[in-house]
Structure prediction request, 273 residues.
Amino acid sequence: MLFFSCSKASEMLLPCIFLAYLVASSFANFYQDAQITWGDQRAKILNGGQLLTLSLDQASGVGFQSKNEYLFGRFDMQLRLVPGNSAGSVTTFYVRNPYTVHTNVYAQGKGEKEQQFHLWFDPTTAFHTYSIVWNAQRITFLVDNIPLRVFHNSEAIGIPFPKNQPMRVYASLWNADDWATQGGRVKADWTKAPFVTSYWNFKINACQPSSGSSCGSKSTNSLNTEAWQTQELDGAGRNRLRWVQAKHMIYNYCSDVKRFTQGLPSECKRSRF
Prediction:
């Protein structure tokens, strides 16, 4: 599972869960390619299937998933996050109440590979593109095509890597004020509900496993000419990654010696660029 979520530092919303038990075409249509999985009528598909909104109220959140499963690919979603201060405690959103992007990678049922970042822009005023590029060599997380994180395949040193199980895209909006708001100290101000986040321009360019084909194999199949299959950062991309991780990373599991008292995970000894 590849995990890409956004939360407010002092609020309870997790509105940009973009994850994959993951996520072959280019532009997806929410009517055709997404399925509302919970939340009743709190999800609305608009503009002929190009826009989807999720609404959170005191009774329930809401979520959707892709109808198909994929193995390797590039997945882009434009998001406009919940505006304002839904906890009712901070008035200057951009200065005191930044959104935090959470990333994680799960393989063989285990994660514990979190990295977190503060966004360098206000994500509530316009749509921004959140992307996952997943191939057999690495997983790259990007915002507006700026890399936040690269997780390399380190199976050679015994680190599990998700490469065998097809996965779906999931997206959700829910109340997490029991733990995400300064440890649960700040509660939601439901007088400001409903809280709405919007999804737009969902693009999937991925391998959909079928009988007799292997998504990870080299072949003459035209799908294997897609850039995402071997995509890696060039020099400019590595410089942008260094900038993000130096200026905007707020948590890195590879630096958490208090958590890993028996020693940091083996992959942490390798370059993350």
